[in-house]
């Protein structure tokens, strides 16, 4: 059984406009399958869970990184996989589409359907985040790509309240510049695998990276790997406004931000972070909660259709 979870509003509504053509192309190779459209935020979580409980073997996520994030969350309930043998296929059509910049996924519908039919899939790590809820969001959330504590929350707020007509890269870059001008550094306490790596020291942001890219193509973690059983951690130190604008921003898309002296790169499996005030946490381009927060790697927790074993 196959089910497609479709967010017609993703990509500024372009997914909805193009869905009929996408569905037709999928059905030519796969035959009839279940189509479940989201209507509001978090819908994809419940739709995915129910589809898996009904015996669906392959879920196709159709939308942006946020839709993908919700679908990933739908694969889990009460901390465990609902259907461990189920597979996730991806048709990303959102503003950022950062996940596919890290791994090699099928580039066409024809390649994707072929991978589904042959059962071609590779294991992918997932990160579980236990956070303080913002409102009604669940306390435990999962993400597949990148989370950010500090600057990411304000950036996502600005992006989500924009028209996104300028495309992913420009939209995120402008939001990042605006948030940078308004941001302040925070006092953070951080533990990685039980070791204190930051004890009430000022930090600009902290990134937990399973993938390499976020924010519409920002190359934040060049060494991150989706199936190595670890996440990469970037600690951005006490940068001045001048440094944020003239040192960090120019390096965000080059993969060279880690060369700055006030940047520290680490790897681990379990990270706990709190701050002198509640900080918003974004993951996969979505606000998922606020600090205090605990991040834990779940090795090979999900099978991704057509994902190249040797991810970049």
From TrEMBL:
Keyword annotations: ATP-binding, Kinase, Nucleotide-binding, Transferase
GO biological process: phospholipid biosynthetic process
GO molecular function, one term: ATP binding
Residue ranges occupied by any DAGKc domain in the UniProt entry: 1-133
SUPFAM superfamilies according to UniProt: NAD kinase/diacylglycerol kinase-like (SSF111331)
Signal peptide feature range: none
Entry-linked InterPro entries: ATP-NAD_kinase_N (IPR017438), Diacylglycerol/lipid_kinase (IPR005218), Diacylglycerol_kinase_cat_dom (IPR001206), Lipid_Phosphate_FormReg (IPR050187), NAD/diacylglycerol_kinase_sf (IPR016064), YegS/DAGK_C (IPR045540)
NCBIfam families attached to this UniProt entry: YegS/Rv2252/BmrU family lipid kinase
Name the record gives this protein: Diacylglycerol kinase catalytic region
Organism placement in taxonomy: Bacteria, Candidatus Moduliflexota, Candidatus Vecturitrichia, Candidatus Vecturitrichales, Candidatus Vecturitrichaceae
